[in-house]
Design brief:
There is one protein chain. The protein has about 350 residues and is α/β, with parallel strands linked by helices. The protein folds into 2 domains: about 170 residues, Collagenase (Catalytic Domain); about 150 residues, Collagenase (Catalytic Domain) (3-Layer(aba) Sandwich). It is built from 6 helices and 14 strands. The strands form 3 sheets. A 6-stranded mixed beta sheet has the order 1-7-8-6-4-5, covered by helices on one side. The protein has a 6-stranded mixed beta sheet with strand order 3-13-14-12-10-11, with helices on one face. Helix 1 crosses helix 2 and helix 4 packs parallel to helix 5. The radius of gyration is 27 Å and the shape is elongated.
């Protein structure tokens, strides 16, 4: 049997997204944001066949002239009908033989007893060339002598329908002899943006972070009273470490002068679209591509024109928001309908 190689699937890229929400101390609830997200989102699109250059290296079909019988296995916990997605992927190659130098034919029979090829959907793709977190894997087949029926293709289960089809097309391309350097580039390139099935947004999660241990940086370059500011923020962090009602009980904070998950800074009025108040900018991943963050990775709390004794309350208000209490009635009691005097008092006691 001729030697063969396993080929890694497309890289699974998570996109950053962000949004800013302001708070005006004269209002009882945060004002809705009207600025566009600060993150960049790039969707993967399949170009029409006429826009793709034909291959310059025709080859022979390693599978021969008979139809390639494809079985489908659902090895994950998802109750999904994958056969339809596999048929879409095989139809792509049947219609795009010019990239191969031959026209493959497929018969997708999910429960075939003696298939030529098995496409197995799994919650985790096994080791593929030593690369962690692969979303698909397949043998690179260029010669009939390499084929040991049934050959097997792996695809991760947790992808959206569109991304599932793309990864399956990519992997089938390897079984037809194509590498990451071959056209069509939108299918065979090694890295593409892929999306998962729908997931809860950060604002819908009880705790929208990966863990409860946080680094905190205070940028007091524009603060009028740096020592007083830091004292206020110390009280706020201690309040949350004590586990107030409705908040996680295991929160911890480490101060740093480097990049941090929580940044508190002081800005001009246009930073929050208010002459006095505060706002929060949230950053994180959007794996399902719905335009909303699913898990936070960083937040920036900006303070504008506040008295020193109001700083702790504003920081505490936005930390409650960041820790899962997006609505005011979900926040700890000190942050519900507080008056100006209450915001400037020792609310943490």
């Amino acid at each position: 049997m001729a030697p063969r190689a396993l080929v890694l699937a497309l890289a699974f890229l998570l996109l950053l997204a962000g949004c800013t929400t302001p708070f005006d101390p004269t209002a009882t609830t945060p004002m809705p944001a009207d600025a566009p997200p600060t993150g960049t989102e790039t969707a993967l699109e399949t170009a029409p066949p006429t826009e793709r250059p034909p291959t310059s290296a025709p080859s022979a079909n390693p599978w021969g002239s008979d139809p390639i019988v494809v079985a489908v296995e659902n090895g994950g916990d998802h109750d999904r009908e994958f056969a339809t997605l596999v048929r879409e992927a095989t139809a792509f190659w049947e219609s795009n033989g010019r990239y191969l130098g031959f026209e493959p034919r497929y018969e997708v029979r999910p429960d075939a007893e003696n298939p030529d090829l098995v496409v197995r959907f799994s919650d985790r793709v096994p080791d593929c060339g030593g690369v962690a977190d692969a979303v698909g894997c397949a043998p690179l087949l260029t010669d009939p002598g390499q084929i040991d029926r049934p050959e097997r293709v792996w695809v991760e289960t947790d992808l959206s329908d569109e991304s599932t089809v793309l990864v399956t097309e990519h992997e089938l391309g390897h079984t037809l002899g194509l590498t990451h350097d071959d056209p069509p580039r939108d299918v065979m390139r090694a890295a593409s943006v892929l999306y998962t099935e729908p997931r809860p947004n950060a604002t819908e999660r009880a705790f929208p972070w990966g863990d409860a241990d946080f680094t905190v940086r205070v940028d007091d370059r524009n603060a009028s009273d740096p020592a007083g500011i830091r004292s206020q923020i110390d009280h706020t962090l201690a309040y949350y470490e004590d586990g107030p009602p409705g908040m996680p009980s295991n929160l911890s904070f480490d101060r740093t002068t480097d990049d941090a998950e929580i940044l508190v800074r002081f800005g001009a009025a246009d930073a929050c679209r208010a002459s006095s108040g505060s706002c929060i900018s949230t950053y994180g991943t959007d794996p399902d591509g719905d335009g909303a963050i699913e898990t936070y990775t960083r937040v920036e709390i900006t303070l504008v024109g506040l008295d020193t004794d109001a700083v702790g309350w504003h920081v505490g208000y936005w930390l409650a928001h960041a820790f899962g209490a997006a609505d005011d009635d979900e926040k700890p009691q000190p942050f519900r309908d507080a008056s100006g005097r209450e915001r400037r008092g020792e609310w943490w006691e």
